[in-house]
Amino acid sequence: MDMFGYEFMQRAFWAGGLIGIIGPLLGVYLMLRRQVLMADTLSHVSLAGVALGSVLQLNPALSGFAVAVAGGLVIEQLRRSYRTYSELPVAIIMTTGLALAVVLMSLKQNLSTSFSSYLFGSIVAVSDTQLRLIAVVAAVGLVYFIVLRRPLYSLTFDEETASISGVRTGLLSFSFAVLTGMTVAAAMPVVGVLLVSALIVLPASLALRIASGFTAAILIAVSAGLLGVFSGLTASYYINTPPGGTIALILLLFLLTAIAIQKLIRLKRRHSKYRGPLRSRSSVQEI
Questions:
Q1: Distance from the first to the final alpha carbon of the chain
Q2: pLDDT, tens digit, for every residue of 74-129?
Q3: How many Cβ atoms sit within 10 Å of the Cβ of residue 239?
Q4: Closest to 148 in 3D by CA, of 119, 121, 178
Q5: What are the pLDDT digits (tens) for 28-43?
Q6: Which of 148, 163, 182, 286 is 20 to 30 Å from 195 at the Cα level?
Q7: Which residue blocks in 148-213 are alpha helix, DSSP H?
Q8: CA-based Rg of the chain, rounded to a whole angstrom?
Q9: CA 82 to chain centre
């Protein structure tokens, strides 16, 4: 494996491995809370933060990170204001993030080249600063999900019951929004803005389709995420394709394969179910 002789590939695999754990884990909770589009929205908001950092001559990774976290908090606040129209805050923030990014990019003409690495992901885009940021986010996320597993479980499945049982749902929801923003911003260098939600949503979609329980869903999602990221990075290196798109396509292939296998198993069981009574009836007729 000559690719591991390059330092940028080592950084990419470390970053991909960390995001491959925390992204799908977050995705399971987002899907169960019906907030799948939140990851996609925050990725566009984060892009505006990157543009803002470039215009103000700040570190783009850190500014994108900070703006994504702020975007998560605003979405959660708007979600509480528009309880009946829960999809409205996502639409508002996504539009705002895209508009802000386009305007800020127009202020600095030489941003287009560097922005392609943020839009589509690039193996060489993972710097030491970004890798440290990803490691911090992964560590914080794992501690968060382990320590707050029970209240998060209650909040995810029934927010009103969780509130009645003493869970501080407001504080927990805001902290969850902050963690979502942190994870989305950290995943951008690996898969890019346009595909960051794929890394969070596709493994979770696969897991929730085939898992028998909540814990199994998390384990399957993380395993699929890690396998998809490592396979995508390897394929991207050898066939010279954008890592974000390659990882997303491999994860989509996993999902489609699982759906096909599941349908085949159901058809086989249905076929066996109908053949059983027919065999019994023919045996009776022979007697």
A1: 66
A2: 888 888 777 777 678 888 888 888 888 888 877 776 665 566 667 776 766 678 88
A3: 8
A4: 178
A5: 999 888 888 888 888 8
A6: 148
A7: 149-157, 159-164, 169-191, 196-210
A8: 22
A9: 24
Secondary structure letter of residue 6 according to DSSP: S
Q: Which string of b and e fits 252-263 if b means at least 16 CB within 10 Å?
A: eebbeebeeeee
**Which residue carries 């396998």 as its tokens?**
227
| Rounded Cα–Cα distance for residues 11 and 75 (Å) | 32
What 8-state DSSP symbol labels residue 241?
Answer: -
Q: What is the rounded distance in angstroms from the CA atom of residue 139 to the CA atom of residue 209?
A: 27
Of 269, 243, 279, the C-alpha closest to 122 is 243
Query: What is the C-alpha separation between 80 and 82, in angstroms, rounded?
Result: 6
CA 169, 171, 37, 191 torsion: positive or negative?
Answer: negative
Name the token pair of 162: 């969780």
Distances 224 to 210, 220, 229 between C-alpha atoms, Å? 12, 6, 8
203-234 burial by CB neighbour count: b if 16+ within 10 A, else e? bbbbbbeebeebeebbebbbbbbbebbbbbbb
Q: Which of 175, 183, 173, 197 is nearest to 134 (CA)?
A: 183
Q: 110: which residues sit within 8 A by CB, 6+ positions away?
A: none
**Chain position carrying tokens 């890394």:** 199
Euclidean distance between CA atoms 20 and 43, whole angstroms: 16
**pTM, rounded to two decimals:** 0.82
**How many residues belong to the chain?**
287
Cβ–Cβ under 8 Å, residues 228 and 174: no
CA-nearest of 230, 181, 176, 172 to 65 is 181
The pair of structure tokens assigned to 175 is 């902290």
CA distance 21 to 270: 36
Contact between residue 175 and residue 130 where contact means Cβ atoms under 8 Å apart: no
**Under 8 Å between Cβ of 148 and 172:** yes
